[in-house]
Automatic annotation (TrEMBL):
The lineage of its organism: Bacteria, Pseudomonadati, Pseudomonadota, Gammaproteobacteria, Lysobacterales. Belongs to the D-isomer specific 2-hydroxyacid dehydrogenase family. This is D-glycerate dehydrogenase. GO terms for molecular function: oxidoreductase activity. Residues 327-338 have a biased composition (Low complexity). Residues 112-291 form the D-isomer specific 2-hydroxyacid dehydrogenase NAD-binding domain. Residues 38-316 form the D-isomer specific 2-hydroxyacid dehydrogenase catalytic domain.
Amino acid sequence: MAEARPRVWVSQPLFGDIVARLGEHFELDAATDVTIWSPDAIADRLHDASGALVTLNERIGAGEIASATALRAVANVGVGYDNLDVAALHARGIVATNTPDVLTETTADMAFALLMAAARRVTEGERWLREGRWTQWSFDTLLGHDVHGSTLGILGMGRIGQGVARRGALGFGMRVLYHNRSRLPERIESNSRAAWVDLDTLLRAADHLVLVLPYSSATRHLIDAAALAKMKPTATLTNIARGGLVDEDALADALSHGRLAAAALDVFEGEPSVNPRLLALRNVVLTPHVGSASLATRRAMASLAVDNLIAALGHGPRAGDPPTPIGAPAAGGIPAKR
Ligand code: DGY
């Protein structure tokens, strides 16, 4: 009798042709519809799985893996992995992987799309026009703030932050400042045309601040009322990292009282719910966590996650050596909350 093949759980529908590669090695338990998984349902799917391919929707911690005695690998489709309790996985000898690099440029593009939309009031103008409020061209309609030649502030200078920096410096002639817990090597600073400053200086000097840092308990609400109070009233804030980095009520206060010109948010603390105070404001651009959502990049992410899982479970050309395991903290580190 043929030996049973290891079972692999795929939590959400991804590209069928890419997921099918898992079927060459494993028995597949793949979701066919977008599904909201409760912690109990996740534990149930993991119970006799050897591997799992999950998205940021699925929180995998000690509770979810408690009875998953066969589990050897969890592949996250995404560069951010705050949905995984990596310490709990590692303590059980379970390999965790993510999908860095393949989404860097696409996400940096989106940061710029959002920054520009906020600074030049693009979505606000579109809504205004659709509401039939444009009765005559006038000189002072929807005056925004320049992007070219302004100061770009980047908080979190990993690969995506460096991509944002290059776009700002080379494409828009911006002065680029960044803050990271540790200063990057001179070669990277010079490739990115960026100068390190402390967090206080970054907040005060930036005309356009972009958040690109990992989320953890140390960075929760890093941008709170005190941080926002240091920013210029003409500045914009763009968040393409994780919603929990920003105290959304404090942001809504600053935006509604003219203490910050505009914000652009692709991520939210309670997503998919969005703070109703933000929904009510005109000077905030809101998108549904689509920073890496180009077709080519989402295919590359799915493909890398599949490669990781196959290799972590001891199959394929890189058996035992998954391309992008999660080990030490992400390059550049997490700036300390202050
Ligand atoms: C990421 O890769 O972290 C994105 O937020 C999508 O998962």
